[in-house]
Amino acid sequence: MAIAVVEQLHGALIDAMQAQELDTRGRKERLHDTIAVSFDIPTIVRLSLGAAWRELDDDERERLERAQFELILTTYAARFADYEGETFETHGLGEAPRGQIMVRTEILPEGVRLEYLLREVDGEPRIFNVIADGYSELSMRRAEYTSLYARGGLAALLREIERLSRANLERGAD
């Protein structure tokens, strides 16, 4: 089941890249539903913010989750823009800590290793971390988010996430 989630994401990415008529906003729209069912945004935000998560009320958590979803969506729409024959190869399941599932994949021909960490949410596997060639998105995000939050609170963190989302749209503009 976890492999199916990752392969569905990969299929949507290839589809969006092959639709050369789409600009970044169009790819973002095309990827929206797949990203929404593939990723565990609440867990991503909670783990990214660490102990500061407990300081937030429900409205603040929801705002942060919406901003994080937008960032993930614009990141994929910008990064996977041009199709040049890439394929995703699934290598199977890997070792993961208890309660987690790892799906090992690779982007060919570049040879970029992607390891997806998933956990069960309401009986369905959802991605909460992507490790690209050994670099954990969650670890990098946690370092950045906790620092931003410590310096400027939620407002500063939200501003930076929104800035990054806008930059993704601009960077990937066709």
Per DSSP, what share of the residues sits in E-state strands of 2 or more residues?
15-25%
> Whole-Å distance between the termini?
35 Å
Topology order in helix (H) and strand (E) letters: HHHHEEEEEH
Number of helices: 5
- Class per helix and strand makeup: alpha+beta
**Largest sheet, described in full?**
5 strands, antiparallel
CATH superfamily: Tgt2/MlaC
Q: How would you portray this structure in words?
A:
- With 174 residues, the chain is of the alpha+beta class.
- Helices cover 56% and strands 21% of the residues.
- The chain contains five helices and five strands; from the N terminus they run H-H-H-H-E-E-E-E-E-H.
- It has helices at residues 2-18, 24-38, 41-49, 58-79, 137-171, and strands at residues 87-94, 101-108, 112-121, 124-132, 135-136.
- The chain has a five-stranded antiparallel beta sheet.
- The chain starts with a helix and ends with a helix.
- The model has no long low-confidence stretch (mean pLDDT 95).
Describe how the helices and strands are arranged.
Layout: H1 2-18, H2 24-38, H3 41-49, H4 58-79, E1 87-94, E2 101-108, E3 112-121, E4 124-132, E5 135-136, H5 137-171
Antiparallel strand pairs: 1-2, 2-3, 3-4, 4-5
